[in-house]
Amino acid sequence: MSRNKLFKELFTNIGTTGAITFSSKPLVDKMLSFADFKGAKLLVELGGGDGSITKGIVERMDSDAKLLVFEISRNFCDNLEKMFPQENVIIICDSAENIDKYLDQVKADFILSSLPFSLIPKPIRAQIYRKSKDSVTEEGKFIQICYSYLLKYQFADYFSEIKTSFTLKNFPPAFIMICN
């Protein structure tokens, strides 16, 4: 899919993408710097979008690791499947609220998310938070890109430890929440 078509998809579905542009490379690099991919076997990305975060994960993950990428836009999923034909990268065209149906009772080492939680209805948002907490290992992390610091207080209902980081090197500037 061309960059123009990706941007059209982004703007056409702004209610589900929650972004006015894709994540910048400096934001992706900063987000992924909070995950130690060495030895991680199962990784989950919530909101694959244009694949900018997916690309960063694939570049860093071990060759024997598996990555599940959740995305609800069929157009984005089709594009992600073309970009990442590897057998260990599985594109799932479904809502993140169904994460537990795909993990087969195995917990992820990391869940990396760019979901627009501010735009997701409260009951679905709560399910995603709860299922993400239940789906990550004890030592693992849930790492979220967001544009509002106030989301930290929602994460606190599910995660006992939350660290935050901020970057101006994205439009708009973004927070990164690192939850354990």
Descriptive report:
GO terms for molecular function: methyltransferase activity. Keywords: Methyltransferase, Transferase. InterPro entries: SAM-dependent_MTases_sf (IPR029063). This is Phospholipid N-methyltransferase. The chain contains 7 helices and 7 strands. Helices cover 33% and strands 25% of the residues. Helix 3 packs across helix 4 (52-60). The chain has a single domain (3-10, 22-179), classed as Rossmann fold (3-Layer(aba) Sandwich). Mean pLDDT is 90; it is low at 16-20. The chain is globular, with a radius of gyration of 15 Å. The chain has 180 residues and is an alpha/beta fold. The chain has helices at 3-12, 14-17, 25-32, 52-60, 74-83, 122-135, 151-155, and strands spanning 42-46, 66-71, 89-93, 108-113, 136-146, 162-167, 174-179. Helix 6 (122-135) links the parallel strand 4 (108-113) and strand 5. The chain has a 7-stranded mixed β-sheet with strand order 3-2-1-4-5-7-6. The protein starts with a helix and ends with a strand.
